[in-house]
Amino acid sequence: MNETYKSGFVALVGRPNVGKSTLLNYIVGEKIAIMSDKPQTTRNKIQGIYTSETAQLIFIDTPGIHKPKHQLGDFMVRAALSTFREVDLILFVVDVNEPYGQGEKFILEKLKETNTPVFLVLNKIDRMHPEQLLEKIAAYRELYQFAEIIPVSALNGNNVTTLMEQIIRYMDEGPQYYPADEITDHPERFIVSEFIREKIIHLTEEEVPHSIAVVIEEMKERKGGMVYISALVLVERQSQKGIIIGKQGNMLKEIGKRARKDIEALLGSNVYLDLFVKVDKNWRNNRRQLSEYGYDQTHLE
Ligand SMILES: Nc1nc2c(ncn2[C@@H]2O[C@H](COP(=O)(O)OP(=O)(O)OP(=O)(O)O)[C@@H](O)[C@H]2O)c(=O)[nH]1
């Protein structure tokens, strides 16, 4: 066995809701990226690490790139762009059932500014007839010189093995950067805040927009191994605060209960979770606050 070890960094880009998080979770096999039916749940870079006997791939899940509307949007786009240049390969994920639109066009224009090879990943093929798929592939081929075009279903794993083989083929010889049992290098605090955000988004359905942030104010191990966590939920309007708290605090209780279950599974210990909700009208437009709330800007140029 003298096969060389291969490794590298892979960025996932694509419009919100195309299935980037689902794909990452399928590959890495652990719940690390927040998933929801609504767009733009992934705002920070999330690394998932795939390790095998012969290769290690470090995935960077870039935010749902879109045309900037306010400062948070601008921040997200710049984060995605700097990622394109840092990685060895870009996976441009599209929902094959959606028409090629402004969002894809915008991303493709940005991809043209880098020399990094790009795979087009046509996701959600479980919802499309094979003949239609061939037409889609032909149409996408006209748009850009993709290194590979690979149809998959991130949901049921169809063709993901082929995708993985192709990704590894594009990697250079390299070290195993992370220990084999490491699936993410994100601090636990971030994952905990994402678990809470996920529960809020799921439970409040269409009523609370993505303009919420969850800040972990305290996370401490107490006597007996119990972990105490105090988290602050930031909303933009009083009405949103009301929705999150719910009648007699029932909604907040349910959010806390469900989040606690996930956090306990993650940490492997009992958790006491305190949730507070605060109205802060301008947090999205306030740069200083963005960094206070954990939107690390150090990787931006
Ligand atoms: N039918 C089908 N649904 C999928 C597939 N992949 C993802 N989905 C669904 O599409 C929705 C969005 O998936 P996500 O993985 O959250 O999408 P994302 O691109 O990470 O979205 P953001 O985090 O908002 O950028 C979820 O409801 C998934 O279950 C697929 O292969 N087939």
Automatic annotation (TrEMBL):
<dbReference type="InterPro" id="IPR005225">
    <property type="entry name" value="Small_GTP-bd"/>
</dbReference>
<keyword id="KW-0472">Membrane</keyword>
<dbReference type="InterPro" id="IPR015946">
    <property type="entry name" value="KH_dom-like_a/b"/>
</dbReference>
<feature type="region of interest" description="G3">
    <location>
        <begin position="61"/>
        <end position="64"/>
    </location>
</feature>
<comment type="function">
    <text>An essential GTPase that binds both GDP and GTP, with rapid nucleotide exchange. Plays a role in 16S rRNA processing and 30S ribosomal subunit biogenesis and possibly also in cell cycle regulation and energy metabolism.</text>
</comment>
<feature type="binding site">
    <location>
        <begin position="123"/>
        <end position="126"/>
    </location>
    <ligand>
        <name>GTP</name>
    </ligand>
</feature>
<feature type="region of interest" description="G1">
    <location>
        <begin position="14"/>
        <end position="21"/>
    </location>
</feature>
<protein>
    <recommendedName>
        <fullName>GTPase Era</fullName>
    </recommendedName>
</protein>
<keyword id="KW-0342">GTP-binding</keyword>
<keyword id="KW-0690">Ribosome biogenesis</keyword>
<feature type="region of interest" description="G5">
    <location>
        <begin position="152"/>
        <end position="154"/>
    </location>
</feature>
<keyword id="KW-0699">rRNA-binding</keyword>
<dbReference type="InterPro" id="IPR027417">
    <property type="entry name" value="P-loop_NTPase"/>
</dbReference>
<keyword id="KW-0694">RNA-binding</keyword>
<feature type="binding site">
    <location>
        <begin position="61"/>
        <end position="65"/>
    </location>
    <ligand>
        <name>GTP</name>
    </ligand>
</feature>
<comment type="subunit">
    <text>Monomer.</text>
</comment>
<dbReference type="Pfam" id="PF01926">
    <property type="entry name" value="MMR_HSR1"/>
</dbReference>
<keyword id="KW-0963">Cytoplasm</keyword>
<dbReference type="InterPro" id="IPR006073">
    <property type="entry name" value="GTP-bd"/>
</dbReference>
<feature type="region of interest" description="G4">
    <location>
        <begin position="123"/>
        <end position="126"/>
    </location>
</feature>
<dbReference type="Pfam" id="PF07650">
    <property type="entry name" value="KH_2"/>
</dbReference>
<feature type="binding site">
    <location>
        <begin position="14"/>
        <end position="21"/>
    </location>
    <ligand>
        <name>GTP</name>
    </ligand>
</feature>
<dbReference type="InterPro" id="IPR030388">
    <property type="entry name" value="G_ERA_dom"/>
</dbReference>
<feature type="region of interest" description="G2">
    <location>
        <begin position="40"/>
        <end position="44"/>
    </location>
</feature>
<feature type="domain" description="Era-type G">
    <location>
        <begin position="6"/>
        <end position="173"/>
    </location>
</feature>
<dbReference type="InterPro" id="IPR004044">
    <property type="entry name" value="KH_dom_type_2"/>
</dbReference>
<comment type="similarity">
    <text>Belongs to the TRAFAC class TrmE-Era-EngA-EngB-Septin-like GTPase superfamily. Era GTPase family.</text>
</comment>
<keyword id="KW-1003">Cell membrane</keyword>
<dbReference type="InterPro" id="IPR009019">
    <property type="entry name" value="KH_sf_prok-type"/>
</dbReference>
<keyword id="KW-0547">Nucleotide-binding</keyword>
<dbReference type="InterPro" id="IPR005662">
    <property type="entry name" value="GTPase_Era-like"/>
</dbReference>
<feature type="domain" description="KH type-2">
    <location>
        <begin position="196"/>
        <end position="281"/>
    </location>
</feature>
